[in-house]
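Service request form, structural biology core

Requester: graduate student, group of Dr. S.
Request type: structure prediction, single chain
Budget code: on file
Notes: please return the result as structure tokens.

Sequence provided:
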Amino acid sequence: MPFDPYLALNAMLRAEAARFSPPAPPARQQEPESAKTAQTTAEPPAGDDTAV
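Core staff response, request fulfilled:
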């Protein structure tokens, strides 16, 4: 397999960027399904041109 200098450079730059970037924020807690459905509103699908 031939050596790809761009692939190596990309890997090196990504490692350096990860080294100096702040840590990722903690993951948010998953909401229960009942809370998600209570906040959503029903909208007709986009592109429904039957109503004139």
